[in-house]
Amino acid sequence: MRAADLVEPYPTVGIDDNAMDAARLMAEERLVGVIVMTADGRPYAVLPGSQLLRFSVPRYIQADPTLARVVDERHADLMCARLADQKVRDVLPDEGPVPAVVHPGATAMEIAALMARSHTPLVAVYDGSAYLGAITASGLLRRLLAAG
Amino acid sequence: MRAADLVEPYPTVGIDDNAMDAARLMAEERLVGVIVMTADGRPYAVLPGSQLLRFSVPRYIQADPTLARVVDERHADLMCARLADQKVRDVLPDEGPVPAVVHPGATAMEIAALMARSHTPLVAVYDGSAYLGAITASGLLRRLLAAG
């Protein structure tokens, strides 16, 4: 059981797209995250929904979430305006992008170890020239349980 | 927009259930994670699929994933056997459970800040006596975009 057998079509966003486009994609398709592509079509990073949400929250509230109770009104407006104001590249993790890309020959166990180590529910499959899709943690579990 | 308005029914597992039950639930319902409940019905932690997968991988391969290429055969059997051998409490993060529980009055912004800080795509809603369900990152984004 290799990445080539496990991969499924999975939506992407461009690194220079608006962060709101990524938010809309995750919201509409109920995705746990999206694959971020470079301008020349390489998968660059995984952007989890939890990471994207971080950039919808003003910095002083990230530092002290209890302040979020005080600014109760119009949270949704504020949060959407913040996302619309940033590019996807601006909402990738400070500590560098999640390097969640595997080649088609990666084994189920390599993929599981990568998801665990990088705390990502999603890895992209790339053969060196084309993006083939992605593998989700729940998809991997489904295939393991069917085969195990 | 408060947790009480955002919460949806969401599956749980007991902390003393078999880890394979959690795996099966995530696989069948395509979940990003499950809510782990104490024996007396309190939400205790979020168990993401990526975390669960960590415990399907032998320790020496977690330390050096390139070894996963060597033990190629029967990965699925090995990984399922490891999960079936552990309880949910054994596969929670070493550094303590993800404290992803909010009260029904938590604001959208508090929830987003919590998901971002704890890198979890899921929070449980608990009113002090009953588990009300959970909020996912994609669900929160959907409601924000509809309202913003």
Characteristic key phrases:
homodimer, 148 residues, 3-stranded mixed sheet, 39% helix, 18% strand, elongated
What does this structure look like?
The structure is a homodimer of 148-residue chains. Chain A contains 7 helices and 6 strands, in the order H-E-H-E-E-H-H-H-E-H-E-E-H. With 148 residues, the first copy, chain A, is α/β, with parallel strands linked by helices. In chain A, the strands form 2 sheets. Chain A has a 3-stranded mixed sheet. In chain A, strand 5 and strand 6 (131-136) form a beta hairpin. The model of chain A has no long low-confidence stretch (mean pLDDT 88). The interface between A and B is large, with 61 and 61 residues.
Summarize the structure in short:
The structure is a homodimer of 148-residue chains. With 148 residues, chain A is of the alpha/beta class.
What secondary-structure arrangement, pairings included, does this model have?
The structure is a homodimer of 148-residue chains.
Chain A: H1 3-6, E1 12-14, H2 19-28, E2 33-37, E3 43-48, H3 49-54, H4 59-63, H5 75-84, E4 101-102, H6 108-118, E5 122-126, E6 131-136, H7 137-147
Parallel strand pairs in A: 1-2, 4-5
Antiparallel strand pairs in A: 2-3, 5-6
Q: Give a quick account of the main beta sheet of chain A: strands, pairing sense, barrel closure.
A: 3 strands, mixed
Oligomer status: homodimer
Give the CA-based shape of chain A: elongated
- Our count of helices of chain A gives 7
In the predicted model, the low-confidence regions of chain A spanning at least 5 consecutive residues are none
Average residue-wise pLDDT of chain A: 88
Helix content bin of chain A? 25-40%
List how many beta strands of chain A DSSP finds: 6
CA radius of gyration of chain A: 17 Å
